[in-house]
Write a structure and sequence with these properties.
eight-stranded mixed β-sheet; two-stranded antiparallel ribbon; 12 strands; alpha/beta; globular; 9 helices
Length: about 280
């Protein structure tokens, strides 16, 4: 038992926040919230920024900042941060993937230990409903190739090998997700041996920005729960858009592909892809 605890304590992980300079206000909010909900993680945090010339400095407290080319994609920001910050495992969050409640650091250590021991190269941190039930353990289940958005860019864990193989070629975050959406559309029904999805939202992730504006429900929750934080003064999405997002989240896992495609054709501006 003592040996197990020592192994868990020795896990070297990094948290990477890739962001554009236009979203640094949201990144600051993420950090302020992280100091409350997961203070143990601050020492492992790295910010990787695009959208600004590399000769212009960016200071975010004592947190290391990686400056990328102004046109670099977010995956490139992750790749470059990994090159300068070696670790056994990486946790990647977009700046608006707020960690909204207190995290039990022991649960994180246990998860990381299991991911490393089982050679899991990718772990989707946000759970999603699925009828695919293979490879279930306490924390996660295996990812199936047919799952739409099984590979999400919002929040995920990854090995350095995965990051190098997926992000070394300048791919964008949109193209990363599209590649796996295209695979899902082929209905090959393959379980990835080294890729998983968390079963519970143990990081209490609350994505809160939609097309540059606050999700009106989520920002209301955050402001009420954390009045000490001065959240960025951005606009909020419309009630109509909020309603469509809620309905979409509720029904898309259960409807047929043909019906989903018809819905997208009729409400194109509310969907990111035609797949």
């Amino acid at each position: 038992m003592k040996m197990g605890k020592k192994i868990m304590a020795d896990i070297n992980y990094k948290i990477i926040l890739p962001t554009n300079v236009k979203y640094l206000d949201i990144t600051h909010n993420f950090i302020e919230l992280l100091k409350i909900t997961w203070p143990e993680a601050i020492k492992n945090l790295v910010i990787s920024v695009t959208g600004q010339e590399k000769d212009k400095s960016i200071s975010i407290g004592n947190i290391p900042v990686v400056l990328n080319e102004s046109t670099s994609s977010l995956p490139t920001c992750i790749y470059n941060a990994v090159q300068n910050n070696p670790a056994e495992y990486y946790l990647i969050f977009l700046g608006d993937a707020f960690i909204s409640k207190r995290i039990d650091n022991r649960e994180v250590d246990s998860l990381l230990k299991r991911l490393i021991e089982n050679s899991i190269n990718y772990c989707r941190l946000l759970p999603q409903f699925s009828l695919y039930r293979k490879g279930i353990v306490k924390e996660y289940r295996k990812l199936n190739s047919d799952e739409r958005y099984g590979h999400s860019f919002v929040a995920f864990g990854a090995s350095s090998e995965f990051i190098k193989s997926e992000f070394a070629n300048g791919i964008t975050d949109r193209q990363f997700e599209l590649n796996y959406l295209e695979l899902a559309s082929k209905k090959k029904n393959i379980y990835f041996p080294d890729r998983v999805v968390l079963r519970q939202n143990m990081f209490h992730i609350l994505p809160s920005i939609q097309k540059g504006k606050w999700d009106r429900i989520n920002i209301l929750y955050l402001k009420r729960k954390y009045p000490q934080i001065n959240f960025s003064n951005r606009g909020v999405i419309s009630l109509k858009y909020e309603s469509i997002l809620l309905i979409r989240k509720a029904i898309l896992p259960f409807i047929s592909d043909s019906l989903r495609l018809r819905l997208k054709a009729n409400k194109r501006k509310y969907f990111d892809t035609d797949l």
